């Protein structure tokens, strides 16, 4: 699985290098971004090359994905810790029940005493 991930990552880099080298003139064109908020303000950016916007979008998406995966990993680690704590508690309970002596005599004498009381009450 690790080799497959490395292969896919290397393939992605090769394809991206090909894309940027074959579209160099188009991606080098400047672009001005603007935002018109009606009745309030109008915002304009400095001229930015298109490749910078593409790389910025890719970087922003990568960081967002990283944050999502980190949050998911933290949740999974918390759940694992809770399950391990519960498992340790249950193992301790099981071990204490295994070491507890079994008294058949006390159980059978309690049962016969109850039967005697039931017979007297009838």
UniProtKB/TrEMBL annotation:
Coiled-coil portions: 73-100
Keywords (A to Z) from UniProt: Coiled coil, Membrane, Transmembrane, Transmembrane helix
Renumbered residue ranges of the record's region Disordered: 100-122
Transmembrane segments: 52-71
Annotated Basic and acidic residues bias: 111-122
Protein name, UniProt field: DUF1049 domain-containing protein
Organism: Pseudodesulfovibrio senegalensis
